[in-house]
Please model this.
Amino acid sequence: MNQKEKLDAKTILIVDDDVEIRDLLGQFLLRYNFKILAANDGIEMFEHIDAEPIDLIILDMMLPGDDGITLCRKLQAQHSIPIVILSAAGEETDRIIGLEVGADDYISKPFNPRELLARMRAILRRSNAQEKPEMIEVQHNALKFVRWTLNLSTRQLISPEQAEISLSAGEYDLLVAFLENPKQVLSRDQLLDLTKHRYANAYDRSIDMQVSRLRQKMEDDPKKPKMIKTVRGGGYIFAMPVSKVTTP
Model:
């Protein structure tokens, strides 16, 4: 790896108490220009986070001490680092809860490392694009809808009461997808393609979970949503008009 590649390398933190999985996955990702850090549990994970910037966390569900769900909640409250959850086969409920508390994606064990790599790259591409101001159109840097404002420069969602609403990376991507396609029915496959660049399988409920979280944060009555509506057999539609604006 040359000096430029070292400077460009993304830092991946693998949090798993299975040493063999950590080592094998770390060795695999090293071949693709990643800097790899490893942690056995949540304590070591936060030590790494406090010590240096982390670009993405691969987080196992079953850990000594705080489990993956608890750690995901803590990360969501304190940091904006993208998270990919690793979960054992049969832990569908845990995977759904993980997405509810802020994970960006999940993959079941045993998994193909190349599939994990593809999902990581998709998340990192989105994160990298959001960090580059030149990717945002000069004419506008925010999207406004029913007195809400989503600032594309800062990734801040501002409520009608001028309160900042915290969004995970996945929630932000999903909201942008809706706001860039208002009053259009979008299927789950389309939303997955727009936000994660992959297609759904029969058990993929990540979009449903993220829609539910957005409704909890944005709707007056999440059970009777007025902005993000469900289209039976079709997917979802953002039912409000959206305008492009420039903010200071």
User: Anything to note?
Assistant: DSSP finds nine helices and 13 strands in the chain. The domain at 3-131 is CATH 3.40.50.2300 (Rossmann fold). The two ends are 42 Å apart (CA to CA).
